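Format notes (please read before filing issues)

Several people have asked whether sequences and structure tokens are stored in separate files. They are not. Every record keeps both together, in the order shown below: the sequence lines, then the token lines. Line labels are part of the format and must not be stripped during preprocessing.
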Amino acid sequence: MQTIRTTCPYCGVGCGVLATPDGKGGLGIAGDPDHPANRGRLCVKGSALGETVGHAGRLLTPRIHGREAGWDEALDLVARRFSETIAEHGPDSVGFYVSGQLLTEDYYVANKLMKGFIGSANIDTNSRLCMASAVAGHRRAFGTDTVPGLYEDLELADTVVLVGSNLAWCHPVLYQRLAAAREARGTRVVVVDPRRTATCDIADLHLPLAPGSDAALFNLLLAEIARNSDHCMDNLDGVEDTLAAARATSPAATGLAHSQLRQFFDLWLHSDKVMSVWSQGVNQSDSGTDKVNAILNCHLASGRIGRPGMGPFSVTGQPNAMGGREVGGLANMLACHLEIENPAHREAVRAFWSAPRMAGRPGLKAVDMFRAVEDGRIKALWIVCTNPAATMPEADRVARAIAGCDFTVVSDIMARTDTVRLAHVALPATGWGEKDGTVTNSERRISRQRRTLAPAGQARDDWRILAEVGRRMGWAEAFGWTSPAEVFAEHAVLSGVAGSLGSDFDISAHAGITPAEYDVLQPFLWPQSAGRQGGRFFGDGRFHTPSGRGRMVAVTPRTPQPVDGDHPFRLNTGRVRDHWHSMTRTGLSPRLSRHLAEPFLELHPSDAARLGLAPASLAEVESPQGRAVLRVLVTDRVAPGHPFAPMHWTGETAPLGRVDALVPGLTDPVSGQPALKSAPVAIRPFAARWFGFAVSAGAIRPDCAYWARATLPRGEQAELAGLEVPQDWTAHARALFGLSDEPLVLHDRARGQVRLAFLREGRLQAALFVAPGPVGLSRSHVADLLGEEGAGALAGRPGADRPDEGALVCACFGIGVNSIVQAIASQRLTTVEAVGQALRAGTNCGSCRPEIRALLDAGTACRAAAE
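Then the structure lines:
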């Protein structure tokens, strides 16, 4: 089969992928050695893409009120209901909520339809949740939303400062590039994060600052730069007010010792080439824009911007968050980085599109959009390629708002998500491997994402669905494209118009692209025009502001929403290593579920002791907005009073693990980005009367207070807990597994334990293990017995003749903790590299290297104690 060059659909690194169809609906996956973003590297999520492209769980036909329908009926209904709503209530009575996982061509069509033809700017994107504050900060400082630098600056810098970015888990390939540079040339790494993350493994300095105090830290740095630098600031605006605000900042606000601050300042000041990289720990705040500008101020004031190895760098969380910014996917932007508030920009876009009624003002940003749905101002809503009923702050409130909307359309790849369940019309969209278009990564590099598989069922590309509705609403000529190449070409022509108005985004060199040229388009950095070809921005001291100078912004640090006696803990939210967003893709991969298979709460030992929460118990977490139940992980990686929980689980995988249900809808006043990283919460033990663990070759149907489900190579597993003890465990197990067979039963009444195994012709079909506390057994061993000879399954552990991998550490090669510990002890291994040579663990994506190093440290400590 032919190998196809395409692009990974996960984070904003934008890695090149070689995808080879296997002829059976699957794909072989490898990193593209010729792609500049990754040079052949892939993280474990990218490596597992071939495990996520099947048709399991897919939405295969349009549905109207739950029944299957044809495309014509569904699209006619969507076009009619939107047209009627607009005619009766005006353009602002409808809204689109789209996604950074759309391709640029999809995004462009949605933006054109809403802003130029419906005539409202009520189109926003889940990228509002991840990088809107970076956009706003860039626009305030530079006059436009421009990322100045390139990935290669990570390898050229003397010092790299990572702020609110767990690069090792969230952008693993960039982490690998930085780790290699540190090893090769001694690059110094500073990690600024209240939590000790895996990224700290390569840190020369970890600054565990007080949550929310990033702006204070960079204000203090700015004051030091001003005291110690001879760099001229005459080419900058806003210097005096900005320095006054910086000098008024108290070091106590950071919670750091003077020696830690001094070490950070000295590293910065004595490094010629400094790069600052930030992500959601900065952006997802109700003062995120100010935090971004505090970072930018330091680079502007010191001149460390726009030259090799130096500059501020925002890394995006989604594969095409940058592409969405380029086409105006946000409610307060126009296509090609033009400004919706600027009459000349609006008229230029209107004229180019021949638009009948151009949006005249910014639309509603994400949080405000769903509040408008809630109170009835938005009466028709189209949600594309995202799951806001699980991922928005105040997720329960958002779900209720969507459920109450007069008319809701959802385009998705999956038949069941928290949001699809609420749709009046569900439209099947193509997924990764079936789509064809372009994406832009965090360094402004545009790459092709190419179709490698036939669409599942009746699925259609998002741009085609949107364009067809536009045609049915009466605008056939404006939405008459026949291929994504034509959409891209129109976008490129418009970028030339924008370039003539001073926009930084100009790819007009591709305005005449043909379908054949589009098919073979190579990755390229923008801008690409007659006047400029890629490269860095602002090294020449010229900016896109009215004065042409960089603009410093005075920042007065703000503290996060206070905790109180009823909610005394400040919950920090984030991601795990091997899962992505709401797991509609990664949840299909058995190996990606083996590292961390259920939602959890990282809790400091002192907090756990005070609350009476033991490791592996369940904690009930409550905020004024909602409630969650999470598995307890006791660790000193978090500070007392500041627990951490990941946000990936939904109603499909763990209904009580929906962490965004806890988060208040506070937003940044400039960017509109919600403060998803922080929620005041109360924590208490979950009063479960029994705990369970189940595996099955078929579907598991939990009927208990708590459950979390994950995919196995041969079926499913589920963690369970209940508030009421079933009277008949055999009947309960049969209902759980949908089986009528007679199980083997082991009932230890003294210990309150019950174990049941269902065998068919001696082979294990399903098993349930129940105990009054967290169930202790080898989960990987029991899972591996599915479909195998299962007479010994009730033991829950392998015999001496069968090795037990234990909890997964290296997902790339399936290496568990027990294998690593045994190799360390038996071979007296002392380095991560030695473990890699012995087991291959840590030699591919590298995300597990911090865990391997922790096991090595523990082994060293044990040997020292023994000696």
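For reference, the curators noted about this record: The CA atoms of residues 117 and 355 lie 6 Å apart. The first helix runs from residue 44 to 47.
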